[in-house]
């Protein structure tokens, strides 16, 4: 049976989950800058939805600065680890569920949506952004950090399809930063901030804060 890219994505992260959970953050200083930049937009009563939450590190770190965080990831094995970590950390205002960018309650939408290191992995990412734009009310903040792999070194960029084929990397979308910005705007968001937090040379992961237009 032929597996879809979305199924392959889930299978990769399910298999990789325990190893991924043990892998260190590649640029800790950049990560701290991203957390600080995100915290600037949070208020104590903020209702946050994060998709592609991974093993929950960001949700757990941001929990003291928000009212509640609903964090989703399409890989059940990843969500299992995130839930364990939140329990161990004693965090009570974060809940996890298996799901994608659309896993929030339409009747009670979040005020802030977070997407860190995931848009390049979302199969059908352009449609997913358009859907978010359609479903989120005006004023909703969309904060993301995304690998824009067109800007990567040729060796890495050209090696990606091979790594995907060999199943040592998940299926990825390769697009430029300009393309990502254009798609976020097309989905109905206004860009408020665009920064690079990397501290170790070339940084192809723009941190973008956008707000749904009225
Ligand atoms: C590189 S990890 C990033 C995790 C975390 N956000 C971080 O910054 O450390 C990507 C995560 O996105 C998840 N993912 C991939 N496609 C997704 C989708 N369409 N919706 C939600 N999560 C997805 C994967 O299962 C994986 O846990």
Automatic annotation (TrEMBL):
SUPFAM superfamilies: S-adenosyl-L-methionine-dependent methyltransferases (SSF53335). Gene3D superfamilies: Vaccinia Virus protein VP39. Keywords: Methyltransferase, Transferase. CDD domains: AdoMet_MTases. It comes from the Bacteria. Residues 80-113 form the Rhodanese domain. GO terms for biological process: methylation. Pfam families: Methyltransf_23. One of its GO terms (molecular function) is methyltransferase activity. This is Class I SAM-dependent methyltransferase. It comes from Arsenicitalea aurantiaca.
């Amino acid at each position: 049976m032929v597996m879809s890219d979305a199924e392959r994505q889930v299978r990769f992260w399910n298999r990789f989950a325990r190893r991924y959970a043990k892998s260190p953050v590649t640029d800790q200083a950049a990560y701290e800058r991203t957390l600080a930049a995100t915290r600037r937009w949070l208020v104590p009563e903020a209702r946050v939805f994060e998709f592609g939450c991974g093993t929950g590190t960001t949700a757990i770190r941001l929990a003291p600065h928000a009212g509640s965080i609903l964090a989703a990831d399409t890989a059940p094995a990843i969500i299992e680890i995130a839930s364990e970590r939140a329990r161990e950390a004693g965090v009570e205002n974060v809940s996890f569920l298996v799901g994608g960018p659309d896993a929030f309650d339409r009747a009670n939408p979040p005020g802030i949506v977070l997407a860190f290191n995931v848009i390049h992995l979302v199969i059908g990412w352009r449609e997913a952004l358009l859907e978010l734009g359609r479903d989120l009310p005006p004023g909703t903040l969309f904060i993301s950090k995304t690998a824009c792999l067109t800007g990567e070194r040729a060796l890495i960029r050209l090696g990606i399809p091979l790594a995907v084929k060999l199943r040592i990397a998940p299926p990825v979308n390769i697009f430029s930063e300009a393309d990502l910005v254009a798609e976020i705007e097309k989905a109905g968001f206004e860009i408020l901030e665009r920064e690079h937090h990397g501290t170790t040379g070339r940084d192809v992961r723009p941190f973008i804060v956008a707000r749904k237009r009225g």
